[in-house]
DNA sequence: CGCTGCCTTGATCTTCTTCAAAACGTGTGG
DNA sequence: CCACACGTTTTGAAGAAGATCAAGGCAGCG
């Protein structure tokens, strides 16, 4: 019964071929930041962005680099992370299409506080932070949307803080899985497959625990029929029992 | 040498008598949200706010209540908290003048995710979330400022996540103290007194640890001359050695 | 002056980390 | 296509860190 899947079933999202041409326009219009804009404004904004493709594993921004750009994920998955005092990985967040990273508007510290790495093949739209700030100031609709995006992100972050405070490795892993399933879930064989390649180490780094502990917990959940998991992937079988 | 102060030296901030009249105008102008506004706009904004005073211990918003208002701390200290699965306290943040709480703009979930309680005598300016949203949309400068405020808060929240992930009770307490000292520090007897009344339980709840563990750690820090502490208060003597 | 609640300290126990080794998947090159 | 080698995952056992239980001390207050 415990047929551990031998192959991580998960489509390595491949943006057809980067995100060039006017596909960008559509992406921008769908991005939370610019959803309210009229056609003309979209064009104005579009002109200010450039798109960059990254192969899996490539660093997009690096902790400590001067914080000069704002990026928006157009396609693929980006991991936001850094390293704790003792060199241990901390995975702060996993980003999908529409999510932003980097410096919002030239506010705050002048260097990035975290690194961003492409997990998939990623296409990211990027803009100079000061240029974005000018856009904010000249097109009010963008600023209003930015407020919405940020307050949502802040709420999620508070939720994460709350959960990390409720110490207990198992419930933290459960929370991480629930969150990932909501954000990146794809229906697959009567389960919700988390459609992102995540190692045990990375899941552990999101829950603030150790790799081995994470592995043990996932094994137990698999035994109990709550999840299905293999090398680099997890699927949620019984969301209700994730507490 | 270990003369543990018998009286928590800390001035219980008392707003002269609430925050009425046009003192409000000044407060609004100093608040991060409205710093850029012209006189006329300040008046427009001012008219939409009302001020409410709270005695120490009073609940300002309660987790689960319909999220209809945005509040800004004008004077005093507000604690943002809720309770984990097992009924344990989680102190998400401590707010001072200029900080906001509640619903930013009618976005997000329709109930508050956390409770807010007055620690001091508090004066809070409050506005209906939908009214605030209208202000955002009609006065672009507010939206731009809101973006700045939110991105700062988000950055701080990410920093907290990072710190909670870097597991080790002592360094987490150190981080909490450093953060509080920066935000609420007042120079006192060659030390930095954290000018907020915080019990051991509350400090523990910010670091995600247990009350007793927190007490032990603070005792050790006191032994090492890093901090001075008493009932309900902590002062940092040697910030450098807080790692 | 004694009550109440916060803080401290000790002892024990649970949980998670750490160290170690084996099993398994995956991609590689023959 | 198969076998090998590498990195990930799993599992075990020992150890440490922190939680929990319990009791005593101290401050503030009626």
What does this structure look like?
- Two copies of one chain form a homodimer.
- Chain A contains seven helices and 13 strands.
- With 243 residues, the first copy, chain A, is α+β, with helices and mostly antiparallel strands.
- Chain A folds into two domains: 16-163, Jelly Rolls; 168-241, Winged helix-like DNA-binding domain superfamily/Winged helix DNA-binding domain (Arc Repressor Mutant, subunit A), CATH 1.10.10.
- In chain A, the strands form three sheets. A four-stranded antiparallel sheet of chain A has the order 2-9-4-7. A four-stranded antiparallel sheet of chain A has the order 3-8-5-6. In chain A, strands 10-11-13-12 form a four-stranded antiparallel sheet.
- In chain A, a hairpin with a 2-residue loop joins strand 10 and strand 11 (191-194).
- In chain A, helix 3 (129-138) packs across helix 4 (140-165).
- The longest helix of chain A has 26 residues, at 140-165.
- Chain A is globular.
- Chains A and B meet through strand 6, helix 3 and helix 4 of A and strand 6, helix 3 and helix 4 of B.
- The first copy, chain A, binds a DNA duplex (30 and 30 nucleotides) through residues 4, 6-8, 167-169, 199-201, 209-213, 215-216, 218-219, 230-232.
């Amino acid at each position: 019964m415990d047929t551990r899947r031998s192959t991580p079933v998960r489509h390595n999202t491949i943006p057809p071929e980067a995100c060039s041409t006017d596909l960008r326009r559509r992406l921008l219009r769908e991005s939370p930041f610019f959803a309210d804009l009229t056609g003309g404004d979209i064009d104005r904004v579009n002109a200010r962005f450039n798109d960059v493709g990254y192969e899996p594993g490539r660093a997009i921004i690096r902790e400590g680099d001067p914080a000069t750009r704002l990026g928006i994920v157009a396609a693929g998955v980006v991991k936001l992370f850094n390293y704790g005092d003792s060199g241990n990985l901390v995975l702060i967040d996993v980003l999908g299409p529409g999510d932003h990273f980097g410096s919002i508007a030239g506010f705050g510290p002048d260097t990035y506080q975290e690194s961003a790495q492409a997990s998939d093949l990623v296409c990211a739209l990027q803009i100079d932070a000061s240029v974005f700030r000018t856009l904010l100031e000249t097109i009010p609709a963008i600023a209003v949307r930015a407020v919405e995006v940020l307050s949502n992100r802040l709420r999620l972050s508070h939720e994460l803080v709350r959960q990390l405070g409720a110490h207990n490795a198992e419930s933290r892993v459960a929370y991480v899985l629930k969150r990932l399933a909501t954000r990146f879930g794809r229906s697959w064989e009567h389960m919700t497959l988390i459609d992102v390649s995540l190692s045990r180490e990375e899941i552990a780094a999101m829950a603030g625990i150790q790799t081995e502990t994470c592995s043990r917990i996932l094994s137990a959940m698999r035994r109990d029929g709550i999840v299905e998991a293999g090398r680099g992937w997890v699927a949620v079988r019984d969301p209700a029992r994730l507490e």
